[in-house]
């Protein structure tokens, strides 16, 4: 039986509003704070002092900053304020103890502080650029919807049965048995007879979940025809049992299309900014070979069609 292989289908957790300890306050704040530990000439912190911990002030400005980052529901502000203040006290105690033990001067901590500082400054610059980008218009969203019926109005849902096995077990004998098999049950029987570990499964994937060339290929296949997908270290033997219409309306698709177009604009803006910065910079590779530049066509081509569709639109039926 004719077989073909397909590319694998590739598919922030916010913290709780507040909790005692360092989940909300963040261990990064401890690392950055270590840089100031042990300094006798540290400037007075801005803001009204709320608490002194061994002479070190915790201010209203610090507390308000933590409160704003915690996304606390309005009805829980008072309780959250008390708990966050206690967390700030805990953090200050840890900072002071770490400073007394000279942990702020260890190479690993100093490198972590510098790395975090660089990331924060760079991210702030990125946000200064992306915050100026215009939100996609209704016309842009509708235009994308109309130009990609395969993701929306003509979306298909594929119901499949599947056998999963390690690619290490895909011997020549197995491949010959697979070519001769007429059904998934025949493949499963061969695996069981030859002691090959495998698992059965059933799954449903939409045409939006997969690269366009893959969904187009599946639409040409008769039901029960076997096809193989390699995913990580596994080989997946699949058979389509049903193909259903699963259209997504313009109204339901709009939020995901908008998110996709925003991310696309951000990527394009940052690619242009990086290209500009590189063109005006003097970059010298010292003791290292310069990276080979990717061809323009390869750099702009979407991988597996993923840049052609808004992620998440395919979820749910």
Overall description:
With 317 residues, the protein is an alpha+beta fold. Among the domains are: 22-130, no CATH class; 156-245, Roll (Chitinase A, domain 3), CATH 3.10.50. The chain is 45% helix and 15% strand. The protein contains 11 helices and 7 strands. The chain has helices at residues 22-25, 27-34, 60-69, 77-100, 107-130, 138-147, 172-180, 184-193, 212-219, 250-279, 296-300; strands spanning 5-6, 49-53, 56-59, 156-166, 198-206, 226-231, 234-245. The strands form 2 sheets. It has a 5-stranded mixed beta sheet with strand order 1-6-7-4-5. A two-stranded antiparallel ribbon has the order 2-3. Strand 2 and strand 3 form a beta hairpin. Helix 2 crosses helix 4 (77-100), helix 3 packs across helix 4 (77-100) and helix 6 (138-147) crosses helix 10 (250-279). The chain is elongated and about 80 Å long. Residues 7-32, 34-42, 295-308 and 312-317 have low confidence and may be disordered.
Provide a short characterization of the protein structure:
By secondary structure, this protein is an alpha+beta fold. It has helices at residues 22-25, 27-34, 60-69, 77-100, 107-130, 138-147, 172-180, 184-193, 212-219, 250-279, 296-300; strands spanning 5-6, 49-53, 56-59, 156-166, 198-206, 226-231, 234-245. Among the domains are: 22-130, no CATH class; 156-245, Chitinase A, domain 3.
């Amino acid at each position: 039986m004719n077989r073909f292989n397909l590319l694998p289908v590739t598919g922030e957790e916010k913290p709780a509003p507040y909790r005692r300890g360092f989940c909300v306050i963040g261990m990064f704040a401890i690392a950055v704070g270590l840089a100031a530990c042990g300094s006798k000439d540290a400037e007075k912190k801005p803001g009204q002092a709320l608490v002194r911990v061994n002479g070190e002030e915790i201010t209203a400005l610090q507390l308000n900053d933590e409160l704003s980052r915690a996304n606390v529901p309005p009805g829980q502000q008072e309780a959250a304020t008390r708990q966050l203040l206690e967390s700030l006290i805990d953090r200050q105690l840890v900072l002071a103890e770490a400073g007394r033990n000279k942990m702020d001067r260890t190479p690993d901590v100093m490198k972590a502080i510098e790395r975090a500082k660089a990331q924060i400054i760079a991210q702030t610059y990125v946000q200064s650029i992306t915050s100026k980008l215009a939100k996609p218009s209704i016309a842009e969203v509708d235009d994308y919807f109309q130009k990609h019926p395969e993701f929306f109005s003509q979306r298909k849902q594929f119901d499949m049965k599947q056998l999963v096995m390690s690619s290490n077990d895909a011997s020549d004998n197995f491949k010959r048995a697979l070519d001769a098999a007429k059904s998934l049950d025949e493949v499963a029987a061969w695996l069981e007879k030859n002691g090959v570990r495998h698992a059965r499964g059933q799954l449903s994937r939409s045409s939006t979940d997969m690269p366009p060339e893959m969904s187009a290929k599946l639409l040409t296949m008769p039901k029960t025809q076997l096809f193989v997908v390699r995913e990580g270290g596994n080989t997946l033997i699949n058979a389509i049992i049903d193909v259903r219409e699963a259209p997504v309306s313009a109204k339901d698709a709009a939020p995901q299309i908008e998110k996709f177009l925003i991310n696309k604009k951000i990527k394009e803006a940052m690619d242009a900014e990086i290209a500009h910065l590189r063109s005006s910079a003097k970059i010298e590779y010292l003791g290292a070979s310069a990276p080979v530049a990717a061809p323009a066509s390869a750099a702009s081509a979407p991988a597996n069609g993923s840049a052609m569709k808004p992620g998440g639109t395919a979820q749910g039926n």
